[in-house]
Design a protein that fits this description.
single chain; 508 residues; alpha+beta; Creatine Kinase, Chain A, domain 2; 2 domains; six-stranded antiparallel beta sheet; three-stranded antiparallel beta sheet; 16 helices
Length: 508
């Protein structure tokens, strides 16, 4: 069962203010998306991030402390914690909300890489439109948004890729198979970064590295996401039938501007999960994965080696090559998308060791490095010049008139999997073959009758008791499309649920 999605936290600032309140600015940005008043419909009761995939429940998380601090420090604010979050479910099935200090966009669940990239790009445009509306209210282009992972002051915000996986896969097998891959995935999916940064020591210029998140990885495994950040997050919150599924929630990834990098990041990870499920993942566990993440990130020549558990050393390229060889042997010919990923994965690794200039416009860290090297050479400045850090930031600006990546895209210098028409449609219509599309369809057709909504359920008003559409096991494309037809033709959500219930009874 292939389903995946991306959650992206965006950096936000105001050019007209010396001191920015990111809580308020993020909330105002989300609400700028609305044409009417905000109504709270997101159902938080279905969220429980304390369950750990290793078989226990944690007593507290950093985000719990955040909510307590909000209650104390922000008690003067004229809104509650959940009002601050301003959770919206969009007509395309995506979620758009304020993650306290960052606006966050979560794509609907996708079944294909092309869809995933398209809905990720739709998120960029959704946030840019909200910024334009907000700026019209402010009287100038003051609000700026960045699809990146650092503010260069010791703070990091995430881009989380998520995968539906069978619960039958032992979690220990996932750890052994995934961690070495994730440590080295930054070679193809890193966003690139000027300088080195830590929460304790702040920012230090004078260097360029592959990944923006590498500096902030602190442990191999953890259920937390804001403190003690892990290479492999152990949160066990499936948003599906718990007896059948897990949701793999990865926080190590960078936010990518290049469509090719996004597709490879998620496509290769999905293939490694297929290998693990088949028992065909290579055995290449590392002695110190956390140190390895940083060592590989800080070597743009890709010559650094890290120690393997049990002895010996291996480079990041060698790790990736081990995985692609195992995947080609086990999965070649499975389907067109798998073959595309295998072919492009092998091609990318070959070019990284031979002629990376051909990857400009495809991999973010290579593209940004080329831009900055060109600029530094022309301006005769060194890597410790603060000018380069500001240009690094502007590479990720999602304003098409300011963002350096969008400048390259407008010149036809970047690889495209999508079209502008695809992206525009994806802003208003969800995938036709996943429950994300159903969620969006409910919002489009019956917004006024929605009492509450979550990833796996929609609760409607009407009648004596609220009526709930349960999608915790709705994953087969044919079933999704049949439900969509029922919803399209129903005069009310209650009629749709009645008709859908009758059809399900016929199947039994």
């Amino acid at each position: 069962m292939r389903l995946f999605g991306i959650e992206t936290e965006y950096g936000i600032t105001r050019d007209d203010l010396e001191v920015v309140d990111p809580v308020v600015e993020s909330m105002e940005l989300v609400r700028a998306h609305l044409t009417g008043a905000f109504e709270k419909t997101w159902d938080y009761s279905g969220e429980d991030p304390h369950e750990d995939a290793r078989g226990f429940r944690v007593s507290g998380l950093q985000q719990d402390q955040e909510e307590e601090e909000f209650a104390k420090v922000d008690a003067h604010r004229p809104f509650s914690f959940h009002e601050m979050k301003s959770d919206l479910v969009l007509p395309n099935g995506a979620r758009f909300y304020n993650d306290h200090t960052h606006p966050e966009y979560s794509t609907p669940e996708c079944r294909t890489l092309r869809d995933l990239v398209t809905y990720d790009r739709a998120g960029e445009r959704t946030l840019h439109q909200a910024a334009q509306r907000r700026n019209r209210t402010l009287g100038g282009p003051h609000v700026q948004l960045y699809k990146n992972n650092t503010d260069f002051h010791g703070h990091s915000y995430g881009c989380h890729d998520n995968y539906l996986v069978p619960r039958s896969i032992p979690f220990t097998a996932m750890v052994a198979g995934l961690v070495p891959f994730l440590v080295s995935r930054q070679l193809i999916a890193g966003a690139g970064k000027v300088g080195i940064e830590t929460q304790e020591g702040g920012f230090r210029a004078g260097h360029y590295q592959l990944s923006q998140r590498a500096d902030f990885m602190e442990t191999e495994l953890s259920v937390d996401t804001m403190h003690n950040r892990p290479i492999l997050n152990t949160r066990d919150e499936p948003h599906a039938d718990r007896a059948k599924y897990r949701r793999l929630h990865l926080i190590i990834g960078d936010a990518n501007m290049c469509e090719y990098a996004t597709a490879l990041k998620v496509g290769t990870t999905r293939i490694v999960l297929d290998l693990i499920e088949r028992g065909a993942a290579p055995q290449c566990e590392l002695e110190n994965p956390v140190a390895a993440v940083k060592e590989l990130s800080r070597d743009t020549d890709l010559k650094a080696v890290v120690r393997r558990k049990g002895g010996g050393t291996v480079s990041g390229l060698e790790l990736q090559e081990t995985y692609v060889l195992a995947a080609d042997k086990a999965l070649a010919g499975s389907d067109a998308e798998t073959d595309w990923v295998l072919r492009e994965w092998a091609r990318t690794l070959n070019l990284l060791s031979s002629d990376r200039s051909q990857l400009v416009g495809q991999l973010d860290w290579v593209t940004k490095l080329w831009l900055l090297e060109t600029f530094a050479r022309e301006e005769r400045i060194g890597w410790d010049d603060p000018w380069l850090a500001s240009l690094d930031l502007e590479y990720h600006n999602i304003d098409p008139d300011r963002g350096l990546f969008f400048g390259l895209e407008s010149e036809g210098k970047v690889f495209r999997l999508t079209t502008d028409a695809d992206i525009q449609r994806a802003m208003t219509v969800g995938p036709c073959d996943t429950r994300g599309g159903i969620r969006g369809l409910c919002v489009r057709r019956f917004r006024e009758q929605i009492q509450s909504i979550q990833w796996e359920r929609v609760k409607f008003t009407g009648g004596i008791l609220p009526k709930t559409l349960d999608m915790s096991d709705l994953f087969e494309p044919a079933e999704v499309q049949e439900l969509a037809a029922v919803l399209e033709n129903a005069s009310s959500p209650i009629d749709a649920l009645r008709a859908w219930g009758q059809r399900k009874e016929q199947w039994r």
